[in-house]
Amino acid sequence: MRLEPADFDEANADPETLALNEQLERLTGKLPNLLEVGIEPLRQAQEQGRGAFGPIEYSDLARNQTIPGPAGDLGIRIFIADRVDGIYLHFHGGGWAMGSASDRDGRLEAIARNSGVAVVSVDYRLAPEHPYPAASDDSEAAARWVVENGAETFGSDRIVIGGESAGAHLAATAMLRLRDRHGFTDFAGAVFVYGFFDLSLTPSVRNWGKRPLVANTDGLRWFAETYAAGADVADPDLSPLHADLTGLPPTLIVVGTQDPLLDDSLIMGARLVAAGSDVELHVATGAAHGFTSSSIPASERAKTAIQDWILGCVV
User: Fold this and answer.
1) Residue 163 CB contacts under 8 Å (≥ 6 apart), including other chains
2) CATH number of the domain enclosing 215
3) b/e 79-93 (16+ beta carbons within 10 angstroms → b)
4) Cα–Cα distance for residue pair 75/158, rounded to 1 Å
5) b/e for 177-204, b at 16 or more Cβ within 10 A?
6) Cis peptide preceding 249, ω within 30 of 0
7) pLDDT tens, 47-62?
8) What is the per-residue pLDDT for 53?
9) Entry pTM
């Protein structure tokens, strides 16, 4: 992992990135105030296509099924294209409180087609109805199912695990649980896209303030506290940034410099390197949280980097 000072100089940001930030700031400033109305109006806005990144586009390639979960049937969404050299186990973002496995259909179909993998995206339980450890338990169960059934079901045991935001957090905790509880350390790679790794809040989150650029300090604190539901946020099972990170696979970290979770990515990357993992850092200059949901050039470069990384891990 190497930090390039030019990547953090906003003067080097694409004009399209800066224009998107202005658009996102206007839009998210008009969305219902999470602290005043709770999560349900934001869920409805997203489902109705009024979220920060517009309507959800569903893939005809996807199919739904269930697997055994800790609280009954656990939904997964599977994408299989023409070639399968490995498996990408994916966890969606949404602060552990919103979203679903179908939210990222377009990107997951592209990964299936361009990276030669079967994609398995997980419909884990959401807070506040199901606080910690529900989503983490579901993620662990999904990871175990893929490890135990991947070769027979998809024809490969090469597994890359990842996700965005809270989904990157769940990918990290699933890997740590499989290592510590089940002795499994054979993931082929990991992809952490602007992950939320410290629920006690890193400096970049604490210092961000109220600027409504998709996520801000108050909102991220609400998501962390709502999922933790009184549990110790310094517990490594809740905040993987605090965990022993030895034995984890090569990892791609993607983050924009205008993201309050920037420190989560940078510190997690540094800790992984210190623990012996190979880390590739992809920095999108000037990009906001969630930028990979757009079609700006910075997003397309990041999505290509993710697809190439996954392909390189499984072949």
Assistant:
1) 90, 91, 92, 93, 169, 170, 171, 191, 192, 193, 195
2) 3.40.50.1820
3) bbbeebbbbbbbbbb
4) 22
5) bbbeeeebeebbbbbbbbbbbbbbbbeb
6) no
7) 888 888 888 889 999 9
8) 87
9) 0.98
CA atoms within 13 A on the CB side of 107: 30
Q: Region 217-224: what's the mean pLDDT? A: 98
DSSP state letter for 293: G
- Tens-digit pLDDT profile for residues 138-174: 999 999 999 999 999 999 999 999 999 999 999 999 9
Expressed as residue numbers, the domain containing 287 is 5-314
* Active-site hit among 198, 259, 263, 264: 259
Cis geometry, peptide bond prior to residue 32 (ω within 30 degrees of 0): no
Return the biggest CA–CA distance within the chain: 51
Q: What is the Cβ-side half-sphere exposure of residue 280, based on CA atoms within 13 angstroms?
A: 16
**Residue 145 token pair:** 């199912």
Query: Domain total for the chain?
Result: 1
Task: For residue 259, indicate whether it is catalytic.
Answer: yes
* DSSP labels, 62-122: EEEEEEEETTEEEEEEEE--S--SEEEEEE--STTTS--TTTTHHHHHHHHHHHTEEEEEE
Please give the single-letter amino acid code of residue 212: P
- Confirm if 121 and 74 have CB atoms less than 8 A apart: no
**Spatial distance between the Cα atoms of 202 and 217, rounded to a whole number of angstroms:** 10
Q: Which of 289, 293, 294, 299 is catalytic?
A: 289
Give the C-alpha separation, 163 to 184, whole Å: 19
> Tokens 């993620």 identify what position?
139
Determine the Cα–Cα distance for residues 198 and 261; give it in Å rounded to an integer.
9
Residues with Cβ < 8 Å from 185, sequence gap 6 or more?
A: 178, 179, 247, 248, 249
Helix runs in 207-254, H state only: 217-228
Name the active-site residue from 165, 204, 277, 294.
Answer: 165
pLDDT of residue 27: 92
Cα dist from 282 to 1, 96, 294, 299, whole Å: 9, 24, 17, 11
